[in-house]
Write a structure and sequence with these properties.
This protein is an alpha/beta fold and 596 residues long. The protein contains ten helices and 30 strands.
């Protein structure tokens, strides 16, 4: 048995008060009479009144004491557990990265919620996280095991919807169970699925790195990083650069409220560097690792300018595009660029950029008709309305080609992807008798195509990523291909994925250096940095505690109320009426007379 309102037991303090009242005597009343022989010998009464004398047991006293007991019983609302009652409780932990600043408070809140369990009732407990890609941390009946499983909670997401996790929790506890969300901020709207919010946040000052990039200036590589202060007050922090075994001296910087400051410097000879801040409330953005970027090498084969067919113009134009190396070896080239027809046959496994040969005649007609672009990532957002091209040959096409750009009913640009995986971009117009060389759209199209070819090349590279960013890496495929392995240096954790799950590969959730290997080949050398400004902003963190309401709702679900409550109410009324009536009759039958 338990009580819904244990504080009502303080009503028992009325018992000594009732007894103390009965210790008191009423003040005697003065009455003037004519004769004394009519007076019977009365027991001498107190002439002073309101003083303590010997307690006289009476029926009104017993009734009043019994009324206090019955009233206390009704107000305390005793409850009894059902023989087969089960108390179901699901806790959902907010997986936002900002929760790392309030992890001790969150663990304390979980312990407080578990303490609300009724010891006499069997419990079913579940511990979930709001990250939909993560399984439940615990499901069982032991509060100790649940607290142990709490150590595996790793909040690392950005702003996300917690409704799917709350729905999963509600399905576990059913409609009669309790669902609790532990977070660091309150919601202006009620939580879905009748969840109870337990917010453990409060405003904290924070300064952190807000992103960085590595760029080349005047022939030297430089890093440039942003330092952001989302706090409401000015903050002073110290920072340093660590590269290899060398570390710079700590430097102090003061940022105004909401200010962002850019820091930069030359990239050291080492392949890696790390920018550090002295730790504060939110430690995830206090470290920013960077690696020296090394894109995959891409070799381009350009034919010698021997024919007056636009080859010279094509060579000159392609050599202006950055990010590739020209080669004279066709066997070693990753990509071919030529004017149709080629001197050497185009193979199905060769990437290529092809332009049409010049038309016959000195004055070919210009193409007419509206220029229409298809929906494709290569030409998305590009303006082709100013393109001018002359009539000429159309490079032979097949069913594998997709038209990217039309002029009237004539295809201008097509893309072919062969079964071997090669991509071939065909421009069905003469480069020398068009204004394509002057169009930004054409330069962007070729740059996108070269980037796409480079992305699909299986070769080592070095790059910088955000934490949890998806990794899109070219790798060996097939049933005999080795697994992909992500190696994290700081945590010494290796994550293996089969090639069928390569699309699930992400950068680590903690800032640091990592590598991706396939067999004995290293595909990626990279660094992951945290740069989520919304999660680093702790100004809106707040607290909310609905544990009292949660305790009452749990009691209502698993305990049954006193079935005799109405009978006790009637008994209380009867005792009060009887006590009043008896006291009234006693007052009439025992008049108090004072003689002189």
């Amino acid at each position: 048995m338990t009580f819904a309102h244990p504080a009502a037991l303080w009503c028992l303090a009325a018992l000594p008060v009732v007894v103390a009242i009965h210790f008191l005597q009423r003040r005697s009343q003065r009455q003037i009479i004519t004769t004394l022989f009519l007076l019977q010998p009365w027991r001498r009464e107190s002439e002073v009144g309101h003083r303590f004398e010997r307690l006289r047991t009476s029926l009104p006293l017993l009734m009043q004491l019994l009324s206090v007991l019955v009233l206390t019983w009704l107000l305390a609302a005793p409850r009894w557990a059902h023989p087969d009652a089960v108390q179901r409780l699901a806790l959902v932990l907010d997986s936002s990265a900002s929760m790392t600043a309030f992890r001790p408070e969150a663990e304390q809140a979980v312990a407080e919620v578990l303490n609300l369990r009724l010891p006499q009732v069997r419990a079913e407990l579940a511990l979930l996280v709001s990250d939909p890609s993560q399984p439940a941390l615990y499901h069982g009946d032991s509060a100790t095991d649940l607290l142990t499983a709490l150590s595996r909670w790793q909040p690392d997401l950005g702003v996300h919807d917690v409704s799917p996790a709350l729905r999963a929790g509600r399905e576990l506890v059913t409609a009669r169970g309790s669902l609790v969300l532990v977070t660091d901020h309150t919601s202006p709207q009620p939580l879905p699925w009748q969840a109870t919010c337990v917010a453990v946040g409060h405003e904290k000052a924070n300064v952190g790195w807000a992103g960085a990039r590595v760029e080349e200036r005047e022939g030297q590589l430089h890093w440039r990083a942003l330092l952001h202060n989302p706090s409401r007050t000015a903050q002073t922090r110290e920072w340093q650069v660590e590269a290899g075994t060398g570390t710079s001296a700590w430097q102090s910087i003061t940022l105004a409220p909401g200010a962002t400051h850019a820091l930069s410097g030359p990239f050291p000879p080492q392949e890696e560097l790390r920018l550090r801040l002295k730790p504060d409330a939110f430690a995830r953005d206090d470290t920013l690792p960077l690696v020296r970027p090394k894109p995959k090498p891409l070799s381009l084969h350009l034919p010698a300018p021997l024919m007056p067919d636009g080859t010279a113009e094509l060579r000159e134009w392609m050599q202006r595009l950055p990010g590739f190396q020209a080669t004279t070896s066709l066997a070693q080239a990753d990509l071919r660029a030529f004017v149709w027809p080629p001197s050497v046959a185009l193979e199905d496994d060769q990437h290529a950029i092809v332009f049409a040969s010049p038309p016959k005649g000195d004055h070919p007609a210009w193409l007419r008709g509206e220029v229409v672009a298809e929906a494709h990532p290569l030409i998305e957002g590009l303006n082709w309305q100013s393109l001018l091209a002359a009539e000429g040959m159309i490079i032979p096409q097949d069913e594998r080609e997709r038209v990217l750009l039309w002029q009237g009913k004539r295809p201008l640009i097509t893309l072919r992807r062969n079964p071997a995986g090669a991509q071939q971009l065909f421009c069905h117009f003469d480069l020398t008798r068009s204004n394509a060389l002057k169009l930004p759209a054409m330069a962007i199209l070729l740059h996108r195509f070269l980037s796409q070819v480079r992305q699909e090349k299986i070769a080592p590279e070095a790059a910088n990523y955000d934490t949890r960013q998806r990794l899109n890496l070219a790798h060996e495929r097939g049933p005999t291909a080795p697994d992909l392995e992500l190696r994290t240096r700081e945590a010494a954790v290796n994550l293996r994925r089969p090639v069928t799950q390569a699309h699930l590969l992400r950068a680590p959730s903690e800032p640091g250096f990592f590598e991706v290997w396939q067999g004995n080949r290293r595909l990626l050398q990279a660094a992951a940095s945290f740069a989520d400004l919304r999660e680093a902003d702790l100004r809106e963190a707040s607290a909310q505690n609905d544990l009292t309401r949660l305790s009452l709702s749990q009691s209502d679900e698993v305990l049954r109320p006193d079935p005799w409550a109405r009978l006790w109410m009637l008994l209380l009324l009867a005792l009060l009426l009887a006590s009043w009536w008896w006291s009234r009759d006693s007052t009439r039958q025992e008049p108090r007379v004072v003689s002189h």
